[in-house]
Amino acid sequence: MSWLKSMMDKEPPEPENPIGIVVIGNLDPDVHEASSEQVRKALKRAQFKVVKLGKKVPAEVFASKAKEVNADIIAVSVNTTPAKDNLPKLLPAIESTGLKNRVGLMIGGAAVQSEDAEKIGAIYGKTKEEAVAIAKKILEEKKAK
């Protein structure tokens, strides 16, 4: 089992032909990166280019980085109540950069549920596998437009 664990912990290679670009990080003031790291690696294995922002990321930084790298998706990890309190800042930040309806928004983490996602027009996922499925669905919907 230790061999399998070491393979899962290993950093996936950068995709040669990424299917989309995801900006990922922990919403300010969240510092718990374990779950967002698992999601980041899963997205990378699924052939997404993933731009990691890290922890304690303000809503405005998610939006500006997404615009800078022409991201398809913003993935936000929310593991604490103070970070959850900052969720309402995401939508205005995305709107102020002109990305509304151009970038998909997905959230997950210990402090949020699907109702929190609905309030800000995001899609909620519980696991890294759900995150990959959601990201692929967002891409399909973007291409259908």
Overall domain count: 1
CATH architecture: 3-Layer(aba) Sandwich
**Runs with pLDDT <50, length 5+?**
none
**What percent strand?**
15-25%
The number of helical runs is: 7
Number of distinct beta strands: 5
What coarse outline follows from CA principal-axis ratios? globular
Q: What structural class do you assign from the helix and strand content?
A: alpha/beta
Quick one: biggest sheet? 5 strands, parallel
So what's the CATH class?
Alpha Beta
Order of helices and strands: HEHEHEHHEHEH
Find the CATH superfamily. Cobalamin-binding domain
Mean pLDDT: 92
Going across the major beta sheet, what is the strand order?
Answer: 2-1-3-4-5
Rg over C-alpha atoms, rounded to the nearest angstrom? 14 Å
- What share of residues is helical? 40-55%
N→C terminal distance: 44 Å
Topology-level CATH name: Rossmann fold
Please supply descriptive tags for the structure shown above.
145 residues, alpha/beta, Rossmann fold, five-stranded parallel beta sheet, 7 helices, 5 strands, globular
Write the layout of secondary structure elements.
Blueprint: H1 2-9, E1 20-27, H2 34-45, E2 48-57, H3 59-69, E3 73-77, H4 81-84, H5 90-96, E4 104-108, H6 114-119, E5 123-124, H7 128-144
Helix pairs in contact: 2-7, 3-5
